[in-house]
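Input:
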Amino acid sequence: MTGFTEDEVVTAIRRLLTAESPGVTLGVGDDAALVEFGEHVGVLTTDMLVEGVHFDRSVQSARDLGWKALTVNVSDVAAMGGSPRFGLVSLGLPEDTELSWVVELYGGLLEAAGEYGLALVGGDTNRSERVIVSVTVTGETATPVTRAGARPGDAIVVTGSLGAAAGGLVLSREVPARGAAGRHELLQALARPVARVGEGLTLAQAGATAMIDVSDGLAKDVGRLSDESSVCAAIRLSDIPVDEALRDAALPGDPLDLALHGGEDYELVATLPGPAVEDAAGKMWDRFGTRLTEIGEVREGRGLVAVGPDGSERPMEVRGWDHFGG
Amino acid sequence: MTGFTEDEVVTAIRRLLTAESPGVTLGVGDDAALVEFGEHVGVLTTDMLVEGVHFDRSVQSARDLGWKALTVNVSDVAAMGGSPRFGLVSLGLPEDTELSWVVELYGGLLEAAGEYGLALVGGDTNRSERVIVSVTVTGETATPVTRAGARPGDAIVVTGSLGAAAGGLVLSREVPARGAAGRHELLQALARPVARVGEGLTLAQAGATAMIDVSDGLAKDVGRLSDESSVCAAIRLSDIPVDEALRDAALPGDPLDLALHGGEDYELVATLPGPAVEDAAGKMWDRFGTRLTEIGEVREGRGLVAVGPDGSERPMEVRGWDHFGG
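Output:
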């Protein structure tokens, strides 16, 4: 690597990670990290972000990238009803990478780690042609929730609102940029998604039978949940919580479309017995100020059904949505 | 990706990973894996292999690459005195990758997982320009050993023999290949290194005060250990267990040089109180047929000292060794 030696970047990262963290016996700098495991079920997840596929270094700041790389992993832990504990980061860095860029990246990683109360306990840097950010997060839970437990009769609920990140992506591609209302909110939703950790725990404790995070779009991810549970998911289109900033922005296209197929929202979709919804929604609002919206129901059968405002039903289209062009 | 869709590769990988594993509540296919944590200290490590930097796809088989990618992580766990439990794998795959290549890669990963008694519990595939294999391994230990505990008076010991992998690399670059004696052993040492898990545990239980695996060369890695322990390491050159196949191969250059600076051996170097060496060596031989060789001593001070056959001493050179050219 030009600009800095590997030792320099290791030392810089290590310096950033020296803060003592509860439960970390030994962090960065040895062959491996030593951590205390609790009595709960461990949750392990890993996700890799690749330059040119998942992000564009010329557009996205290193700090936002670091935040997002950790958040997407934490979101996976949250979707199990888990709480994140420890994170490990492997980087691939091109020769033209500046050390300041790497420090900013870790700044974002550490900012997210602080937000989610997890400790980064391992780091590894390598040379590569494009930037690679590979993150692993371990967590634990006393109430694990998989994708596979949805039962006919369960309600389908979703946290927060949908479509803002997709709106941000549409906005970020507009040249010249329009002065759309809610511009900042939408771009922020894309750059700085938030993992719903407390909300996931609340849903798990409320008796969620299945749960998944919305990374690839509501339709696609609910489809995965219903597939894994061998059930049919019926979604009432008029109940989808389309993001308000997205509605106000009046972007080209239908906001509902972005909410259904846009992805990158990192909201949680869960199924739970109908009688439990009101209590879960109340607790979620009281604890986190996060809305919980009932958007449909689980039925016998397979597949996805879209229920229109007039009660008419049709199979729901699951569209791949091109997040990053190319 | 051409050749196969992402769903196809996910399905293929999942099919390979469906075997039930002890301690795995939920493996591949959900947002995250669920595992049982023991009462021991958890060990977490991650390592990324990048095509063109760590390996050459035109030379190295996918199966060997998979084996090695897991082994290097397990070796880090072994160097803590730990036993591996769970592994996660993130892949970056170029568009020209064949599904059969990915299946072979996982074949090697699973072969290694079987060898080391760990469960692969997570997988993630992405598109990238060059192949990226990013592995995380979690383990546990009742007797953690770091790099930082070496004390003046301790003996320095190393498992097995050194230099064979470097010899294999020299051989693999020779065009035309010579019919060197021990050719197969040397190439195998490079392609199929073995992590010293049982040996690491034996050393930890014998009271090892510090330990590290030899990934970048004996001199460099002992230097790291002595730096972390704030001690001086004195290495007796005539006691270095230079690999016999390397000696027999009569490659250009000094075999001792490859043993000192070659790297990729994944043997363990440990420090332990002198009286404990004989017992540890006996147990290691009885349990695993692995030699344990005393190669030096820990002293007050800092740095590395090379002790010659005649007892003369000089600072030991720490050479970066160019593992993969370019």
